[in-house]
Structure formats: C-alpha cells, structure tokens
C-alpha cells in the first residue's frame, strides 16, 4: 500500500507518555530502542523512560536483557523463539502492532514467567496505542487471539455497523476511537 503520514498533537503525545510513565516504566526505568525511529513502536521505547527519569539503551533486540520495559511486535516474539532468552525485560513487555496469539505468547511466558505483559492496540492515528489488555505473572495465557482489552482512561471506543449504529456484544462491526489520543 501507500505509506501514510500521521500528525500527532503534542497534547496527545503528552497524555500517552504520562499514562505510560504511571503504567509501564516507573521512575528510573529503562528500555531498549531496537527499531527504526519511523516506527510508532519507537515512541513508547524512546520517550517513556525519558519522561520517567530513566534511560534508553540503543541496540539490537538481543541486547534487551535487564531493561525494565521492552516493546515488540508479535513477530519479534516468534523470531527470537528458541534462540534468544535475553529478549526479556525485567518488568514489563508491551506487545503490539499486529494480532498477538496466545500460543506464541505462552511459549515466551514459560521462559519468562515473572514479566507483566500488555497486549497493546491502537492505530497510529491514536498516538501509538489507545487500548490494552494486561496479563500479570501467574495468570493463564489465553489461547487464540489475545484480547485487545479496554480503552485508556482518556479514550472511548465504539463498535459500529455500516450505518454508524452500535452493534450488540459479539456482533462484528468497525471499531471507532474517540478522545485525547486522536
């Protein structure tokens, strides 16, 4: 397809990073910057620790041992499976960008049971992510597609039909996002 450019407002980015600071990094956290600056995943890895008094480590995915925050795509998890046990943060793993399947996540979690995992969802237009599902250590990993969770506090989501009417629970529709992230 054709590349798209997305303009993100400062207030949206600020709200996203404040939320991340409280949810992911904590004061003094660290992350691994392992992707291109043009990838919206990088916003989380680069700026979250910097607004939290933490540090950013720049390197390859294999350099992720010991950081407190790591953000990857599900393809990253499948790519390093069986090869690289160092692709494990000390605290929080955020996965997003494509559908996360429980089978892939479960294999990773068996090797890294003490990490909190967030399945993040959001189109780029929603300032990286606008919804997430949290899986704490000790909780069972779901099978099949992992839920995308609930909207961030400053966000609303609606599942609507072709006439922009809400659909009942369980009925397919289009997801519409509203709020600060847009």
Description of the molecule:
This protein is 24% helix and 23% strand. By secondary structure, the chain is an alpha/beta fold. It has a single domain (10-152), classed as Rossmann fold, CATH 3.40.50.980. The strands form three sheets. It has a five-stranded mixed sheet. The chain has a two-stranded parallel ribbon with strand order 1-2. Strands 8-9 form a two-stranded antiparallel ribbon. Helix 1 packs across helix 2. It is globular, with a radius of gyration of 16 Å. The two termini are 23 Å apart. The mean pLDDT is 90.
Taken together, the total number of domains comes to: 1
Order of helices and strands: HEHEEHEHEEEEE
Structural class: alpha/beta
Task: Order the strands across the largest sheet as they lie in space.
Answer: 3-4-5-6-7
* CATH domain fold name: Rossmann fold
Q: End-to-end distance, in Å? A: 23 Å
Got a strand count?
A: 9
**Major β-sheet annotation:** 5 strands, mixed
Low confidence ranges: none
Shape: globular
Please, what is the average pLDDT?
A: 90
| Alpha carbon gyration radius | 16 Å
The appropriate CATH architecture is 3-Layer(aba) Sandwich
Portion of residues within helices: 10-25%
Beta-strand portion reads 15-25%
**CATH C-level:** Alpha Beta
Please, what is the oligomeric state?
single chain
Please tally the helical runs, counting DSSP H or I stretches of 4 or more residues.
4
